[in-house]
Structure formats: C-alpha cells, structure tokens
Amino acid sequence: MSVNTSSKDARALLALAPVIPVITIDRASDAVPLARALVRGGLRAIEITLRTDAAMDAAKTIIAEVPDAIVGLGTVLTPADLDRAKQIGAAFAVSPGCSPDLLRAAAAGDLPYVPGIQTASELMACVNAGFDVVKFFPAVPAGGIAALSSLAGPFPSVTYCPTGGIGETNAAEWLAHPKVIAVGGSWIAPPSAVNDGAWDAIESCANTASRLRSARP
C-alpha cells in the first residue's frame, strides 16, 4: 500500500523536534504567551487539544500571532473536526484513535494527519489507508515500549509518536526506540503551569525536551 501525502507530510513535521507538546488551554488569552515560550524553548510544533471551549480560539490566535509556531489540532474525532482544522489554517491534525470515515477523509485531503492506534487491527486499518506514521495512545497504559516493539515486528514500515503516560523521566527511553520519531506529552506545559502563567518555567522545560534526541544511542 502506498503512503499518502497526508502521512508523508506528517512524518516531516514530527521529525522537527523530539517532543510534541500536547496542550490543553482553558483561557484563550494564555495561547500567545504559551506558544511563544514553547517556540523560544525550541519546540515549534504544538498540538492544541480540542478538549475545552477555548481550544479553537486559542489555536486561531496562535496561528495569527506566533508565525514561528507550527500549530496542530489534537483530539480530532470526526471528519468535521478535520475540516475545522484545515479551515483555521492548522498545520497538522492528530487523533487519539481512528475510524474508517476519518481515515478516508484524511487520506483524501492534504492536511498532515496522524491517526491514533492501540491494537494491530487499528494499525492494519491505518496502513491500508496509506498512513505509515501513527500516534500510539495511550502509550504506557497500552503496554509501554514492549507493546510498541511487538507491533513494530509485523509492521516494519511504520513509525510512531507515542503519547500518554510519557513524561520527563521516561521520554528519553521512548525516544531511544528505533521506530519512535517523536513523543507527545503534556508535561512540557501542564495546565497548572499555564494557568499560573509560568512562561519562563515552560520555556526551560521545552528547552530541555528539545535536546532529548541527543540521548538516542
């Protein structure tokens, strides 16, 4: 099965940095200073989750006011969500899982897209739809690195962005896996730090995370 353009472009984006910050924003007013802190720290690709009422406005504001940020929408659950991502000018989209309708819509479009998987059956569906880079979610509860390695055996062409249960203490271990292109994580900018406006601390955490790839053997 050939790889579609959406997946090829997603792979290129994920390769920009070892960590994709997974961000939940409760107040749209926090969006710009948060994005600037992450970019200064070396993490330009940012996933804004569609989990709050402020998420879409926050993403729009970052796109308009922080040109160095590469803004993606996360928690994309339907083709309509995918359309919304494209309409606001998002650079990519990410899902926690996959569905036939969503895979078809993403494969037919040109927005870089990363579907989520947890099982071999889900991974087969993604590969058959032309996606060779996926989000392994929730990474730690789903079996951790051992589970990812088991999936990698029968799917040698696939690379992964594990997300869920990954933090400062174990990110380097995940990044050392040869099939992991990047990891996603909320530890870079947890809601408590965002709500407190702790931009310097977030920048420092992003800077540390941006250098994690050097830990690979």
Largest sheet: 6 strands, parallel
Distance between the termini: 31 Å
User: What is the architecture at the second tier of CATH?
Assistant: Alpha-Beta Barrel
The domain count comes to 1
User: What's the rounded overall pLDDT mean?
Assistant: 96
Element string (H = helix, E = strand):
HEHEHEHEHEEHEHEHEHH
Number of helices: 10
Could you state the CATH homologous superfamily?
A: Aldolase class I
Description:
By secondary structure, the chain is of the alpha/beta class. It is globular, with a radius of gyration of 16 Å. The chain has one domain (5-209): TIM Barrel (Alpha-Beta Barrel), CATH 3.20.20. It is built from ten helices and nine strands. Helix 2 packs parallel to helix 10 (199-210). 41% of the residues lie in helices and 15% in strands. It has helices at residues 5-14, 31-40, 55-65, 79-87, 100-108, 120-128, 144-152, 171-175, 191-196, 199-210, and strands spanning 19-23, 45-49, 70-74, 92-94, 113-114, 116-117, 133-136, 159-162, 183-185. Strand 3 (70-74), helix 4 and strand 4 (92-94) form a beta-alpha-beta unit. The model has no long low-confidence stretch (mean pLDDT 96). The strands form two sheets. A six-stranded parallel β-sheet has the order 5-4-3-2-1-9, with helices on both faces. A three-stranded parallel β-sheet has the order 6-7-8. Pfam families: Aldolase. Pathway: Carbohydrate acid metabolism; 2-dehydro-3-deoxy-D-gluconate degradation; D-glyceraldehyde 3-phosphate and pyruvate from 2-dehydro-3-deoxy-D-gluconate: step 2/2. Homotrimer. Keywords: Carbohydrate metabolism, Lyase, Schiff base. It catalyses: 2-dehydro-3-deoxy-6-phospho-D-gluconate = D-glyceraldehyde 3-phosphate + pyruvate.
